[in-house]
Amino acid sequence: MKQSVKMIVGNWKMNGLAAQIDEAREVDAVLRSEQAESRVVICPPATLIHRVKMALEGGRVEVGGQDCHAESCGAFTGSASAEMLADAGATLVILGHSERRDAFRESDADVSAKVESALAYGLEPIICVGERSADRDTGRAVEVVTAQVAGSLPASLEGKAFAVAYEPIWAIGTGRTPTTGEIAEVHAAIRQALVDRFGEGGRAAPILYGGSVNPGNAAAILRTPDVGGALVGGASLKAHDFLAIIRAAH
Ligand code: 13P
C-alpha cells in the first residue's frame, strides 16, 4: 500500500531577517521542479509571514505562524491574533510549542483556547506536546503526553484539519533524539487518544515528530509507524538541509 503523504513543517522560531526569504524561495523553486509528494510548510517569524507568502505565491509551500493570541484583537501589546496571521497570509499555526509553554507559562487550557481561535479564523493548528527528560527518566512520557493531548485539544477540532506534533523537550535543539521505538510508542498513544476522543476522525490527523530532526536521521524517523511528518527547527533554516529532510519523506 502507498504510504500517505508526509507533512514536513519548518519552524524558523525567532530567526530570520529579509535575507532568509531566499532560503524559502530556494525550497519552493526546487519543489516546483521536483514534484515532491510531501506537504511542506514554512513557519517564519510573524514579521516575515506576509513577505514569505508573497515570495512563494503560486507554489506548493504553505506558510504558517508560530503562535497566536486567543483573542482576535484588543489591548494585548506585542501579541498577534489568529485573524492577523490569516490576514498576513498564514494558513496554519503552531500552537503550544514547549518554548511557549515554558517561557510564557502557557497551560493546556491556554493552548486549547488558542486552537479555538485558530479554527475560528480558518487556520489549521499544529498542536505541540512533549515530555521533559525527568518525565521520560521516570517512565511517565506517555502519561504526560496523553494528558497534554486531552487538555490542549478542544472538542471543536472534531471534523477539522489539524496536526499534533510530538516534541520531547529534551530532544529540541540538543542533537539527541528518542529511539524510533520510543517515538512509535508515544505516537501510538497519541493516536489512541485521538481515536478515543474523535472516533474514526481521529485517524486522519497527522502526528509529526519534532526534536533534532536532521538530514541524517529524517528517513528513519519518517519511516517509523504513525509518524506522519516532521516539525523541524534548526535544520529548516537552510534550504539545502530542509530539502534533504523533505526528500527523505519519499
Ligand atoms: P530543532 O529541530 O532545532 O531541535 O527544533 C525542534 C522544534 O522545536 C521544532 O518546533
Descriptive tags:
250 residues, 39% helix, TIM Barrel, 8 strands, eight-stranded parallel beta barrel, single chain, alpha/beta, binds 1,3-dihydroxyacetonephosphate
What is the alpha-carbon Rg in Å?
17 Å
Helicity, as a percent range: 25-40%
Percent range for β-strand residues: 5-15%
Class by alpha and beta content: alpha/beta
Multimeric state of these chains? single chain
CATH topology: TIM Barrel
CATH architecture: Alpha-Beta Barrel
Give the N-to-C terminal Cα separation.
14 Å
The chain-level mean pLDDT equals 96
> Quick one: overall form?
globular
Number of structurally distinct domains: 1
The main sheet orders its strands as 1-2-3-4-5-6-7-8
Q: What is the H/E string? A: EHEHEHEHHEHHEHEHEH
- Based on DSSP secondary structure assignment, what is the total number of beta strands? 8
Low-confidence runs (pLDDT<50, min 5 residues)? none
Q: How is the main sheet built?
A: 8 strands, parallel, barrel
Q: What is the number of helical segments per DSSP (H or I, 4+ residues)?
A: 10
In CATH's first tier, which class applies?
Alpha Beta
CATH superfamily: Aldolase class I
Q: Are any ligands bound, and if so which?
A: 1,3-dihydroxyacetonephosphate
Short description:
With 250 residues, the chain is an alpha/beta fold.
Structure in words:
The chain is 39% helix and 15% strand. The protein is of the alpha/beta class and 250 residues long. α1 (21-34) links the parallel β1 and β2. α1 runs parallel beside α10 (239-248), α5 (108-120) crosses α7 and α7 runs parallel beside α8 (180-198). The chain is globular. 1,3-dihydroxyacetonephosphate (13P) binds at residues 11, 97, 167, 172-173, 210-213, 231-235.
